[in-house]
Amino acid sequence: MIMLPEIGHYVLILAMMFALALAVLPMMGYLQRNAILLSTAKPLTYLMSGLTCASFIILAIAFAQDDFSVLYVSQHSNSLLPIWYKISAVWGGHEGSLLLWITILTLWAALLAFKSETLPNSTGPVVLSVLGIVATGFLAFILFTSSPFLRILPDQPVDGVDLNPLLQDIGLIIHPPMLYMGYVGFSVAFAFAIAALITGNLNASWARWARPWTNVSWAFLTLGIALGSWWAYYELGWGGWWFWDPVENASLMPWLAGTALIHSLAVTEKRGVFKSWTVLLAIFTFSLSLLGTFLVRSGVLTSVHAFASDPTRGVFILALLVIIIGSSLFLYALRASQVKSQVSFGLTGRESWLLINNILLTILTLTVLLGTLYPLIFDAFNLGKISVGAPYFNAVFSPIALLLIVFMGIGPLAKWHNTKGAMLWRLSWLPAVLAIVLASLVFTFHEFDVYMWVSFAIALWLVLMCLRDWLDKVLAARQSLWQRARKLPRHYYGMQLAHIGVAVSLIGVIFVSMNSTETIVRMAPGDRVDVGGYEFEFLGTRHVEGPNYTADTGVINVYQDGQVITQMLPQKRLYQARQQMMTEAALDPGFTRDLYISLGEPLADGAWGVRIYIKSFVRWIWLGGLLMMAGGLLAAWDKRYRRKTGA
Amino acid sequence: MKKLLFFIPFVVFIALGVVFYQQLGKDAEYMPSALVGKQMPEFKLVDMASDTVVSNSAMPNEPYLLNFWATWCPSCSVEHAYLGELAEQGVKIVGVDYKDETPAAKKWLEERGNPYSLVLLDEMGRFGVDMGITGAPETFVVSAEGKVLYRHQGVVDAEVWQTLKEYMQ
Amino acid sequence: MHPVRKKRMITIAVILVVLAAAIGLVMYALSQNINLFYSPTQIAQGEAPQNVTIRAGGMVVDNSVERASDSLDVAFSVTDYQHSVRIEYTGILPDLFREGQGIVAQGKLDERGVLIASEVLAKHDEEYMPPEVTDALEKAQAQ
Q1: CA distance A397 to chain C (A)
Q2: Burial, A533: exposed, middle or buried (Cβ in 10 Å; 0-12, 13-18, 19+)?
Q3: Mean pLDDT along residues A619-630
Q4: Is any Cβ of chain C less than 8 angstroms from the Cβ of B146?
């Protein structure tokens, strides 16, 4: 038992050996047309994956057993920590989260190997081999710069430092694995794209194979981002749901690029156009996932989420980035220039609408990228240290995103190659009128704001257009509505669900920013304050002992129309091991509004600074995220992907 | 001409890589320490051994190391053995138990040996603030007259000691 | 014009127009919304502009935190150990705000040279793990 961490380390070294073999042997097999070498791809993938998982489990055991002789465990755990936090502490720091990253990568590779029956004989091994290259790089990164299995010997600490209190939370137990499932999942689309470049088979088939994988990764990434936003909302104690922090941007950029990729893969598969663009987008999406990892790990950007920075690691991961992304882009430059589209695309067809989608999403990605990297570039030219604030992102992101959503309403109605303007007009005039009327109606009850009005109308337009399109499809035939509705393919419903999810999130965002009230007050015991139609009475605080913290709990009664509707208990916690203060907000969630209270600091005479928020429709933001995720999964499970495809 | 267009992503990426490389060494939140060359700030802290309050006058009247440590800090257990070796060579080390619980600190010193000629308890971290430390461990070289000569952030080992030694003379 | 070429021209024209609009928007937003960072020394020497949103950071000076008894107004000084600058803020300070803690405040300088902060941010982590430690550990393991 005592040797377990060492075993974990050696298992990881073995995993890297197999990853290296996977990176080299099948690729040689392809180049030399050697069937035996090609056939090594699958077993090597399984070995690499199994060993990496084993080493991950060993680290988890070290955490569960409070083995503080392991440096990483002593830095991120504590004997008082509840068991589920001990397990999630495995990815609470740099080393462990990288191990999680690579574990997920090898799991995706194993799943791909398992499903590779449907691929032509040479493609499968080359794709796996590309994943082997990525895995080798990251396993080497862990082993050379950030092994989680290092020991502190002979003087091991009596107890661990504890997991950062901010991370002791249910949202954060599942957030990183979901996020990584998404980030890393894009490696599959990337591997397909690179394999297509290597083999020269840049026809529509690679797009077809990559589609379900991309959809699933995108769904996970959506969930991961939604969870992160939800966590930040209730855990950081200031009630915001998106901060444009570099770390958040790092997850948003691959999401935006991935969204573009999903749509562009559709065009390439169906029409055989935009081939080289789609390949570039697949590379771009995975590169942004890697870039996110680099930005978070290397400490080149300041962020509230930043991990301790270490220049050696930074150099290593930058080198890795340059090798992987640089060689992909170089390969792309050499091969993609030879591709010719056989079919020309129709200027009024659905492909044009999807092109607009791609242009706008790419621009969105680039604006976020620019805003995130601007401080870095500014500093590199010695122009001073700056920060790009949230106003920049809001000012640039929102109008482009709104424009995108306008087109989202029209796109699905368009037919491939050629769409008649009259048909579009016939379908869309009613939703347009209805959206404007309904939005105006809502604003008769509310202070008028042009920007919000336009945004709201656009959200309604999207929902109505989705509905209109569906009705058009089910009412057209003679069969009963139900039969007809059931006949529509899953990928169609997936798309509709995801699009409606965007509208739901947008409605949430509009109401939160327009209709929320925020009050920061000083409250002494017995004080009452009116906020947005509710009355809050502060009864004082009481002392509470938690498993690894002590806390002051504020007791606040909430009245509506003179009746107590709920009692809310926000906390101010002091985590002993780190002597760190934490604000634990109290929430009263609801479908149309959240009540949100957090304690500030104790002031004189038992009074406290108290923040009270009423957040309109804030749940809708994440509800929309869930719908998008469900849509992505539904589309990936479409029947047509399960058929065997001959080459 | 058209072929060159496909190289644009590659070129842009490499340019970005160069910018990243330049930025790597820099600490994005660098805070300079201006204490070097100045007199050590006044303090009143509890001495662990005697349980009495002591001040600057209790410090050794020869050059010494002022070491901030804590039981919650894994890096401190790494350097602890080496500090023991230094103490055996006759180097005076004053320990400041930084933001720590005293019983745990006593236990730690009993178990692993005590390299310090004097251990000051800075439970609230006030003295740490005055010295401008940003974490633990940190070690200062202080002259016999109480002047701060050098500051080292992180673990003290044989290599770091070579530098510290020069300032001690 | 050949129809394929015409199609291509239209596509490129649309892309260029959208791109130009986006770049314009980005340039405008950037010129409005970037905040330069100044150290207390730079502020003391008058390098920082007044009434423009800037960021300033340093260690919170011990015993400098003053709170109003009847409101959420708070004032404190930050220092880079050469000069210090006074910061005034209304609201709730972050959990990690402490005397001696490194903080960054965003706000505007007034005529008195006091930073009226709209936001105060504190750094998250106290302990750091320099690369030397990792080296030392590897050495310890090798023995």
Answers
A1: 9
A2: exposed
A3: 96
A4: no
* Cα C65 to Cα C61: distance, rounded to the nearest angstrom: 8
Strand-pair partners of A564: A559
Unique residue bearing structure tokens 């249910």: A170
Domains, chain B, in order of start with CATH, read: 31-167 (3.40.30.10)
Token digits for C84?
Answer: 């210090």
ipTM of the complex model: 0.79
The whole model's pTM is what?
A: 0.82
Which of B157, B159, B161 would you mutate first to test chain C, the one with the most C CBs within 10 A? B157
Q: Which amino acid is at C3?
A: P
Write out chain A residues lying below 8 Å of B26, CB-based: 300, 379
Task: Give the largest CA-CA distance in chain A.
Answer: 83
pLDDT(C119) > 50: yes
For B31, C61, C76, the CA distances from C100, given in Å and listed in that order, are 12, 6, 11
Which architecture, in CATH terms, is C37-122? Answer: Beta Barrel (2.40)
* Domain range annotation of chain C: 1-33, 37-122
Q: What is the DSSP string of A6-51?
A: HHHHHHHHHHHHHHHHHHHHHHHHHHTT-HHHHTTHHHHHHHHHHH
Spatial CA neighbour of A159 closest among A550, A578, A549: A578
Nearest CA to A93 out of A254, A372, A305 is that of A305
Question: Which string of DSSP letters, residue by residue, matches C39-96?
Answer: -HHHHHTT-SPSSSEEEEEEEEPTT--EE-SSSSEEEEEEE-SS-EEEEEEESPPPTT
- Residues of chain B positioned with their CB less than 8 A from the CB of C59: 31, 129, 132
Which residues of chain B fall short of a pLDDT of 50? 27-32
CB atoms within 10 A of CB C7: 16
Q: Does residue A331 or residue A388 have the better pLDDT? A: A331
* Beta carbons of B9 and A332 less than 8 Å apart: yes
- Rounded to whole angstroms, the Cα distance separating A572 from A139 reads 40
